[in-house]
TrEMBL record:
It comes from the Eukaryota. Residues 445-667 form the Glycosyl hydrolase family 67 C-terminal domain. The gene is aguA. The active site is at E276 (proton donor), D355 (proton acceptor), E383 (proton acceptor). This is Alpha-glucuronidase. Alpha-glucuronidase involved in the hydrolysis of xylan, a major structural heterogeneous polysaccharide found in plant biomass representing the second most abundant polysaccharide in the biosphere, after cellulose. Releases 4-O-methylglucuronic acid from xylan. It comes from Rhypophila decipiens. The keyword Transcription regulation does not apply. Residues 125-443 form the Glycosyl hydrolase family 67 catalytic domain. The keyword Hydrolase applies. GO terms for cellular component: extracellular region. Its main location: secreted.
Length: 671
């Protein structure tokens, strides 16, 4: 979306309205700061889009673009707008050929420059006068990259950051990635896997991290790192990693000071502790708050923050215990700790209570810790959503969660207002998106998968935006202005999440993918009978998790009263979450009059049928998109079409066998 392709003739304005100069405030010729990056970006962008070479000058005129911080700008209207700007925000004014791009800070100026260029690239030359502020202070990506160069749940080749136990020498790709993220208003990257290795903190790697931070800083991005909780023992040679042990505290303080010496603007730490076999405070009977606060104290003098993940659960759960529920874990682990976390701790919560499934209700934790900073964790990498081999445009799913009203104290309590800090009046909060880009030239392994990254960044800036409108912006910037290209990509992308839900797992049963090994392809049998807790409780006659208070796991009761009542009652539970909250007979009838099992059969056909159309839709674009990208996507969409049939038949065959109930339309599935 930053290719700055030449704008077609019919979309160009008359030349008299174009600026003739770029003036960068706060810079010298040699500086490498967000404002100087912004000036160069403006120069390259205008050259690409309009074919005009603008000089970077020092004296502003009525036909120049001025970019810089608002503090460095002398203009009588400055005061008025300065007061409207919040951290990282910008003021963009365009009146004819006079353009002013003024940030609350340097980063804001860069964001404003990208916004201005995006407008030009989309052929929008209208005059504007806007103040744009980010909705939340934390707008980060998480990368699950390992020091050996592999990436957990990454589908685009090896790491751009690490290789052979250290940080790569050539960080060119890292700079390019920083540019992509900055263009969306993102401001932090946690570069290593949440399942972190202690070796991240060796002297040589700290220096390497410093090189990464130096590379991304000009783009206004700060570095964050994931820590291994047992590092004092595994790396430091101490006999313990107890968070309350004074030697452990001293070890972390010293390490932190060393890190900040090399990276003075380190954003902070991300911690996965006492989860999925990772070490943590529970090993020593300390609370998760004790664990988080250990790091909070270490980074506090440096202005850093700690993102502490709420993804803590027992993965050796007792399948025979009808009342046990992994979906209850976050509230059980965190609710009683509300108010005990330091001010610079943010609890990072996956959008749903389980794990990035094709559909989940919003995590009840958002409604249970009002005295704690919160961030939402979203997954851009398509772990459960077909890796990047299936087209799934995810923002409509995210929007359902972000726009969801938790009704805390029977008052409007949208998830997006909670994570922005607005609902509970908290200073910190925001967004963490698991991206997992790799060295593949497409970044994510598929060209169309990039719309997810684009929309994630834009939503983190302003979550009220419409997912379809964001997609259209992205498509124009990425593929040009041909109407049929725009319409087709919009159509198949908007249909993709509902289709994927239909041919994988519907009615809130979860994705039904293989959960034991690959997280790819159908394996409904893998959900049950093990300790992972992603259960469906399907047997010969019934299916679904009973999460009621009355008879089940009590999960419905973790929601505020209005929602709890709604989910407790099968009649008022939204049908798309029926099997998430209720255990029913296959023969239970839905509002359509269909039985649950027949709905399964039909939905899997409908989803797979939609996936077949993606191929024909895409083929209609032959010659309208460059061959490389056309063929690349055609290959993937054909794969998806075929794989959706595999999904359809595997899932339908599985439930047909289990239930013994034949399809009303007489379709059969042999495996
Ligand atoms: C999922 C994923 C793991 C990851 C974990 C997490 O379970 O499969 O690879 O480590 O989430 O988010 O910590």
């Amino acid at each position: 979306w930053l290719r700055y392709a030449p704008l077609p003739e019919n979309l160009r304005p008359s030349t008299t309205k174009l600026p003739s100069l770029i003036v960068a405030l706060n810079t010298t010729e040699t500086s490498n700061t967000p404002v100087s990056v912004a000036a160069k970006e403006l120069q390259a962008g205008i050259q690409g889009i309009l074919g005009t070479q603008l000089e970077i000058a020092t004296e502003a005129t009525n036909t120049s673009i001025v970019v810089g911080t608002i503090a460095a700008y002398s203009d009588k209207y400055r005061e008025l707008n300065a007061s409207l700007l919040e951290k990282d925000g910008y003021w963009l004014v365009k009146k004819g050929a006079k353009v002013r791009i003024l940030g609350q800070n340097e980063r804001g100026a860069l964001y404003g420059a990208f916004e201005y260029l995006s407008r030009l690239a989309r052929g929008d030359f209208s005059d504007v006068d806007i103040v744009s502020n980010p909705d939340a202070p934390i707008r980060w990506t998480n990368e699950w990259d390992n020091l050996d160069g592999s990436i957990e749940r990454g589908y685009a080749g090896p790491s751009i950051f690490f290789r052979n136990g250290g940080i790569v020498k050539d960080l060119t790709r890292v700079a390019q990635y920083a540019r992509l993220l900055a263009s969306l208003g993102l401001n932090g990257i946690v570069v290593n896997n949440v399942n972190a290795k202690p070796e991240m903190l060796t002297e040589i790697n700290i220096d390497g991290l410093g090189r990464i931070a130096d590379t991304i800083r000009p783009y206004g991005l700060q570095l964050g790192i994931s820590l291994n909780f047992a590092s004092p023992q595994l790396l430091g040679g101490l006999s313990t990693f107890d968070p309350l042990d004074s030697q452990v505290v001293a070890w972390w303080t010293e390490k932190t000071n060393k890190l900040y010496k090399r990276v003075p603007d380190l954003a902070g730490y991300l911690i996965k502790a006492s989860s999925e076999g990772q070490p943590g405070p529970l090993t020593y009977n300390r609370t998760l708050a004790d664990g988080a606060n250990l790091f909070a104290k270490a980074v506090e003098p440096h202005g850093g923050i700690v993102m502490f993940r709420a993804f803590v659960y027992n993965h050796h759960a007792d399948w025979n215990d009808w009342k046990f529920d992994r979906a209850n874990a976050a509230v059980e682990f965190f609710k009683h700790l509300d108010g005990q976390f330091h001010d610079n701790v943010v609890v990072q919560i996956k959008y749903g209570p389980i794990d990035f499934q094709v559909r989940e209700p919003a995590s009840p934790l958002f409604a249970n810790i009002p005295n704690t900073n919160m961030a939402i964790e979203l997954q851009i990498t398509q772990e459960y959503l077909g890796h990047q081999d299936h087209l799934v445009y995810i923002p409509p799913l995210w929007k359902e969660i972000l726009d969801f009203d938790m009704r805390v104290d029977s008052k409007p309590s949208l998830v997006r207002d909670i994570v922005a800090g607005r609902r509970y009046k908290k200073k910190l909060g925001g967004y963490a998106g698991v991206v997992n880009v790799g060295t593949n030239t497409t970044w994510m392994g598929s060209h169309l998968a990039l719309s997810n990254l684009y929309a994630y960044g834009r939503l983190a800036w302003n979550p009220t935006q419409d997912s379809k409108a964001l997609l259209e912006d992205w498509t124009k910037l990425t593929f040009g202005h041909d109407r049929s290209v725009l319409d087709t990509i919009t159509k198949i992308s908007m249909e993709s999440w509902p289709a994927y839900e239909n041919y994988t797992g519907n009615l809130g049963i979860q994705t039904l993918t293989d959960i034991l090994y690959t997280h790819f392809g159908p394996n409904p049998a893998s959900q049950d009978g093990n300790g992972w807790g992603q259960w469906t409780r399907a047997d010969g006659e019934t299916i679904g998790m009973d999460r009621t208070v009355k008879n089940g796991t009590g999960n419905a009761g973790q929601y505020p009263p209005e929602l709890a009542a709604k989910y407790e009652n099968i009649e008022t539970t939204p049908e798309e979450l029926l099997l998430w909250f209720h255990h029913v007979n296959y023969t239970t009838r839905l509002s359509t009059g269909k039985t649950v099992i027949q709905h399964f059969y039909d939905a899997h056909y409908a989803g797979a049928a939609t996936a077949q159309t993606f191929v024909t839709e895409w083929e209609s674009l032959r010659g309208k998109i460059d061959t490389e990208r056309f063929e690349h996507m055609l290959f993937r969409l054909k794969f998806q079409a075929g794989h959706s049939l595999v999904w359809r038949d595997a899932v339908n065959g599985f439930y047909r066998n289990l239930s013994g109930i034949p399809d009303e339309l007489g379709r059969v599935w042999n495996h």
